[in-house]
Specification:
Elements (H helix, E strand, L loop, with lengths): L1 H18 L3 H23 L21 H30 L5 H8 L2
Helix pairs in contact: 1-2, 2-3
């Protein structure tokens, strides 16, 4: 059930990128899709009953792998920086165009 909700989040973001014409809505849809991908990765990487390798006093058990946590933190930071860069690009486009609809921007910039 949880996997279905995560896949629905990814699909909502994907269809938002394809179907929305406003550039800000496309950026928000990309953020929703990346959040779904991160949630799916966390869902797959998490396991019940694993101990942390630093604080645990139990020996000869399966320890939690810290690499997926580091990858997720890195993905969140990179996603935030890409989103900020795209929003700056949209702000630059908004100075020259009265609308942020992609169809109108394409029409006004074609020779």
């Amino acid at each position: 059930m949880l996997e279905a909700c995560v896949f629905a989040t990814i699909l909502c973001g994907f269809f938002g990128i394809i179907l929305k014409k406003n550039l800000v809505m496309k950026i928000i849809s990309m953020d929703v899709m990346s959040t779904g991908v991160i949630a799916y990765y966390v869902l797959i990487a998490s396991r019940d009953g694993l101990f942390t390798p630093i604080v645990s006093k139990v020996k000869n058990v399966a320890y939690a792998d810290p690499v997926p946590q580091a990858v997720i933190l890195t993905a969140i930071v990179i996603g935030l920086s890409i989103q900020a860069l795209m929003l700056v690009g949209v702000m630059k486009l908004a100075r020259d165009n009265p609308t942020l609809e992609s169809n109108e921007i394409e029409k006004s910039n074609t020779p």
